[in-house]
Amino acid sequence: MNGGKKVEEDKQPQKRKRPIWPWFVLLILTLGAIYVHYQVSVMIEDLKHLARDITQLLEWLLSVLPD
Fold first, then answer.
1. Alpha helix positions (H), the chain
2. SS3 of 29, please?
3. Average pLDDT per 10 consecutive residues for the chain, totaling 67 residues
């Protein structure tokens, strides 16, 4: 009879460990999104400075030209 009891114990659902790799993928995607956001912000600031610098250059060129 003990043999039958062992079979019943084997049929009980075992707790499966949840895989950890989806969390790593989520972490990598999140870090990538933060990095891209930072780089885009830096590029936008550079474009703002470039527009201001070009405006100053054109104003200087116009001031140098004879009337």
1. 2-11, 21-64
2. helix
3. 55 81 97 98 96 94 86
Distances 61 to 48, 64, 67 between C-alpha atoms, Å? 20, 5, 12
The greatest distance separating any two alpha carbons of the chain, rounded to the nearest whole angstrom, comes to 113
What number of helices (H) and strands (E) belong to the chain?
2, 0
Q: How far apart are CA 45 and CA 36, in angstroms?
A: 14
Separation between Cα atoms, residue 30 and residue 43, nearest integer Å: 20
pTM score = 0.60
Q: What is the pLDDT of residue 16?
A: 85
| Three-state secondary structure call for residue 39 | helix
